[in-house]
Design a protein that fits this description.
Blueprint (H helix, E strand, L loop, with lengths): L1 H18 L25 H5 L33 H7 L6 E9 L10 H11 L9 E4 L4 H13 L20 H4 L6 H16 L3 E8 L3 E8 L4
Parallel strand pairs: 2-3
Antiparallel strand pairs: 1-4, 3-4
Helix pairs in contact: 1-5, 4-5
Length: 227
Amino acid sequence: EEQDEIAYRSHINAYKATEDGRLKAEIRPLNGIDRDLLIRPDTSMEMLAKLSPVFDRSTDGTISAGNSSPLTDGAASVLLVSKERAGKEGLEPLAFIKDFINVGIDPEDGLLMGPAVAIPRLLARNGLTIDDIDIIEMHEAFGGQVVANLKALEKGWKEPSIGHVDRERINPLGSSIAVGHPFAATGARIVTTLANEMKRRNARYGLVSICGAGATAVAMLLEQTAE
């Protein structure tokens, strides 16, 4: 049920962000297509609950096609320049990269559990708490991956607990379950979406969390103003 709730919120948030133009503003139309085609505004918790498990097909299985990210075609890009170069070129930055961290954990501890290690380390290194973060963009490989990492973050696992994570701050424009997961493009897409939303909200801090296959992860801290 928690996994399905992640999926439901992803679709509803992505639909709202498409309809009000926030997501469409960062999409380059192709052959007349100007929006992600997998977003399902008509889904419901009841519909998601009826889907059969796709990996463990026994009665213990919980991962379904509905609470997993679809593998899609796609491309994304980010223009990354120094503050000095941006000024010279007359460019107005959407956000600044304050810090980032890559981690790898023992695969036996969970192939997609790296964010539970990367996020606490990144926050601690910058003297921040999770309450300092205005928007969190967490890659939704699976609803189960999001749920498991949030519980590990809140209860403490390999790193100390970071406290309660406000669900309203997570993926306010939807994420990979709703818009898809084109390998190698997802990171750039998430950074773009976060930077744009930070600009709109005049938010100071944004957090990127991406799990990588093979028990790796990256966490990145974006800031509105460069020190």
